[in-house]
Every structure is written in structure tokens, then in C-alpha cells.
């Protein structure tokens, strides 16, 4: 039995206001080819299928096309929702899709949904756990805590798992290894908000844990607890993250082996550092000019229409920044201001803010009122 583990498609995503739809279609077509070449029979989609809770028409059509191709190939698809997905939109047509081997778990209710698949004498139980907050689990089971670890420990302990069979969990959560956090990118940190950890040991009853949520492919705690990673680079903090597809092979002895298959993008996401003159004369290493670029210019003088000039070389430039003496001074000045702010008390900072807003000094009566408020808050 061969199983493809994918997550974090983020269909419809825009990066620096550029649509990634064409790039996503290219990767999904590549994945279809991989499925055929490797004779994959089951595909796991572990959350953040769409980038927005209200996806674009283009994103909906792209997912529909991808799932239609899988259905025509008689591939079983197990899909859960992530924190970016809309429960209602992802679950639309769930009963109908089940007849076409598409199983969707978009909302946790009162137990983890179990799907059993039998193929060539091998039986695998798939437990589908979409993104869910601990407070919801606590409410459902009337627990006395909303700690992520305690809630998920309770949930797993009260899930019937046959240890004689192969059990795979699909989950879209922030799982850590002995409190060591996985590596995050800029495209994730803004959406994760207050991060709540779940220790990987909580999922020990499962033979494999197919995770979504983190964009870098990586194992957490043990080899069989893995983030699939996103299918594309979605920020410049991901430029050194090689994207890949993970395939599980389960043999007749219930042993699981993993293989990793690189995903090659239509346009890569890269950085280059040089002067504008070097760039225009192609005296630096240019690479593929269609790539999404962050260009760091080292010129000391002001440049008019820098992005327009850079675009003659890199039409898909996403970001331009400068690295020169003036820039370094600005960074130093900002650091000094930050240090100065950190040395000041809340009352001193409020005095400065009051003067900036009202153009008069804060009088003694109001100052004492402010101090009493700060004291009350601190207590």
C-alpha cells in the first residue's frame, strides 16, 4: 500500500500581491504524475487546503480539477480542514463525495472520525482530526482545563485504537518535540497567533502521524510524526526550504518505509544581492529570470524607479531592499531608539505619547492618575 502525505496547499494564495494559482496548478500536475509513477493508492490532504476561508473562484476550480483527476484514477483521498479553511465550504457535498472515494473531515464533533481502508491484504485505520481548538474539546467533554496538551491527551486516550492494526492519524496542529518548536516561516507566524504546543508523545498510539500546519517538511520527535510541509515556497523566509512529497509504503508485515520526492516549482523564490549596474549588465549570477525575486541593492546613491529598472531583468520581482551605509545607519538609529524605549518606564513613555498627541506637557494631576492606573494593572 502506497500513501502520499500532502498538506498546506493554500490554494488561491497571493504572495506580495502576486497570484500563485499558475504555480500551484503546475505543482499539482507534477503531483498527479508522481502518483502515477509511484502507483500511489491513497492521498492524504492534511489541512489548509485553501488560503482563505472564502476561497477565490480560481482556487475552487483548481481543487475541483485536482480531485477530479484523482477520482478518475480511482485514488482514495482523505482530507481534513486546517485553520485557514472554512468548515462549511470544505465540507460541502461530503456525503456525495464519499461515494467517489473522497473522505472529508472539516469539523471535530465528539470523536475522531475513523476510515478503514483494505488493500491487497493490508488494513489501515485512518483517524481524521481537523484543526480544532482546545477550548472546544474542553467544552465538548466538560474538562476542567483548556490546556492543549491535556485536552489532546484526553482525546487520544478516549479514542478506540486497535494496536494489532496499522493506525495513521491526520492532524492539523502545532506539534513539538520535547518543547522544541519546528522551524516557522514568515508566512506562518502571522496566522498561527498564540502558539499552543502539543507534545508528540501524545500521539504515540499511532504508527504514523500525518501533520499539516508547518511549511517546512520535517519530523517531530520520531521519524513517523511528520509535517508534510507546503507544496510551494510562500515567503522569502522559505527560500532554503526544499519542498517535497512524502510517500509511505506499508508492506504485508505492517512495516512503514518513507520516500521523499522533490517538488520542482514553475518559478523558484530566490534572493540576490548586487548593485543595480551589476544587475543590468548581468555581471552577477542572474539565474532563471522568471523566478520570484527579492533583490538587495548595494548602491550608495539614490535610485529613481528602482523596481522598474530591476523588472527589466526580473519581471516577477516581489521585493526590493537596500544594503548600504545609509541603510546601516538607519538600522543603527532604529536600534538606538528601541534601546532607549526599553530603558524608559511606562509612565515616561505615556508622557511622551501625551505630549505628541496634545502638544502640551502632562500635568501633575493627570500624571498621578496615570501612575495609579499602571500600579493597579501591575498588581
From TrEMBL:
Domain of life: Bacteria
The keyword Hydrolase is assigned to this record: yes
GO molecular function, one term: exonuclease activity
Domain Calcineurin-like phosphoesterase: 1-217
InterPro entries (UniProt xref): Calcineurin-like_PHP (IPR004843), DNA_Repair-Maintenance_Comp (IPR050535), Metallo-depent_PP-like (IPR029052), Mre11_N (IPR041796), SbcD (IPR004593), SbcD_C (IPR026843)
UniProtKB keywords: DNA recombination, DNA replication, Endonuclease, Exonuclease, Hydrolase, Nuclease
Domain Nuclease SbcCD subunit D C-terminal: 265-357
Family: Belongs to the SbcD family.
Main function: SbcCD cleaves DNA hairpin structures. These structures can inhibit DNA replication and are intermediates in certain DNA recombination reactions. The complex acts as a 3'->5' double strand exonuclease that can open hairpins. It also has a 5' single-strand endonuclease activity.
Name of the protein in question: Nuclease SbcCD subunit D
